[in-house]
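Hello,

Our lab assistant flagged a job as stuck in the queue for most of the afternoon. It eventually completed. Since we weren't sure the result was trustworthy after the delay, we are filing this so someone can double-check. Below is the sequence as submitted and the structure that was eventually returned. Let us know if re-running is recommended.
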Amino acid sequence: MKLKKQLLLFAAVLCVGFSQAQQTIPPFKKGERAVFVGNSITHGGHYHSFVWLYYVTRFPEMPVTVINAGIGGDSAWDIEERLEEDIFSKNPTYMTMTFGMNDVGYFDFYKDNAQELAERQIKKSFDSYQEIEERMQQAKGVTKVLIGGSPYDETSKIENQIFPTKNEALLKVNDFQRASAEENGWGFVDFARPMMEINQREQQKDSLFALCGGDRIHPDNDGHMVMAYLFLKAQGMSGKKVAEVTIDAKNKKVSLADNCTVSNLKKSANKLEFKYLANALPYPLDTLARGWGSKKSQADAMQLIPFMQEFNQEVLSVSGLDQNAYELKIDGQLISVFSSKDLQDGINLAELTNTPQYRQASSIMYLNEERFEIEKRMRDYAWMEFSFLQGKGMLFADNQAAIDTIRAYWNEGFVRGNFGVFERAHHAAVRKTWQEQMDLIVKNMYEIAQPVEHTFELVKVE
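-- returned structure --
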């Protein structure tokens, strides 16, 4: 792959925006080991965790494993250095890769020759990527997907330093990734341009709006949910309902039962009753701002993207009822009250956070967050190994000499901040225990996700 060829392709893709998400990349298959490679946005971010939560709740009979292989501060040349020990050693069957934010630099954009320096950094990133590309080509039986990473936000009016034209350079890295994917027949998902479109749209209403947090770089939880949405949409998951039930109450008939089973339908003068067994669960949305410095929650993204309409529909429609109000009870618990017109038009049960099926899904969400927190500690440990000790010739030394070396460079970069985790994790027994905890959590997630039958009642309000 020649640099000149890639540069010619940059202009051709600049107009591609949100529509990129319509393109299809392979969905995960049963037993898939999906390794997400990236920088700090992957290391400490939730987008891959949100994607996994979708698969657990939507396809409980099809276990997959999603693995975080991000390291904060990484550029393409750093990823190339850890390809074998930290990425292919995880035995991926599905591999995503994103980089660029650190590749193009930061303070150089204030210099008089900023454009020249940026082009130099882009070429360095490209040259390093060619080594990565060659190794990926050699990996047989692995589905490869390149991700054009989230943008650098230069347009928000938040009070934070701006590196002018950084995003322009970042998009050029994004574009040679796209070109490589096309040339190799790999998948490509663009996060950058769709997220820029959302930023520009929302900033017309609120000039302080920012998907990429307070530092213009790291997406907040709402930004990570947007990224998960774009990834799932590219996998062709849009339009797949949790379940859909249509009942003709007048004729006591189930007209539709999609991805579910409806049985024991009974109707009396004031009540309609049936058994409901869905093959999937509604997607639960966290309402807390998780992570250091976060201000937004996963649920906040619902104001930005049509996720509920496209991905989270658990629809109940009932026609032929007397014009009246009806209590919806599930397993004897009052859920809400709906008019006969509401029921005929169809209600989205996934919007009701007090249903037994939503609470079942929420248990999985919180377990997934526990798993995420343990895995992040593992990635903090990986940072110390690959971003610091590898350069000192002490990769996986995990001994007192490694501890002493870290203390000798106490004030260098993020060494001090990651020491607490490393001090624990450099003991193999600790890492083994963490992995066992994660394995147990995942096992429990899939056990909890298995279908449970519920009794539905629509009771006329007298």
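-- support follow-up --
The delay was a queue issue, not a problem with the job. The result is valid. Residues 1-21 have pLDDT under 50 and may be disordered. The CA atoms of residues 39 and 74 lie 5 Å apart.
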